Amino acid sequence: MKIYVVLASVLLFSPVIAQAQTDDPVDKNVGGPYVGGQFVVGQGVKVGDSSPGVAYLIGADVGYVVKRDTWNRIELGLELSTGKASYKDKDFKEDVDLNLNLVTMVKAGYGYSLGGHSFGVFRAGVGIAQASYDGKSDLGPKVNGGSSTGVATLLAWDAVIPASDALDFTFGVSWRTVNFNFKDLPNNQGSYQLNIPAVYAGARVKL
Known about the structure:
- The protein is mostly beta strands.
- Helix content is 10%, strand content 70%.
């Protein structure tokens, strides 16, 4: 009789045991290098009396994930991007296209688990931006402000979502600043800060 009870118990609870084994957590917080790309779209907002315009950046992103434990990570990276930011300068009555020829930025981030093997990452970055200034005043003539090299900074948050063991997708929001001094513009109007609030999406491959 005891044998029948044991067999019945095994048959009854074996599906539960199998399900528990299937649902055991799998650690997919894997460290190592990655390479990818991203597209950033937002607004160009000059500090001062201005109206925002469209801004975008297209870039490459390389980096390294340092695993701390199953639920935490550190991400270090280098971003190379190019794009454009537009705005209307009300102080000088100009429609401006700021050509962001090259933005080079080093980044560091702290990542924490969102569940489902996804991670949320807070990022900060600093680097150098090279740009050229094209403007058109309300009076008609074009304004060539020449080129300038300035300081770029970044604050961002994104979600890193695995699509496979080798591929991740990223979606996030960012706040970028660039500071320039275009010396070819009169009356020191070429010294200013441009803010770029934006959203972005990208993909990266683990190496």
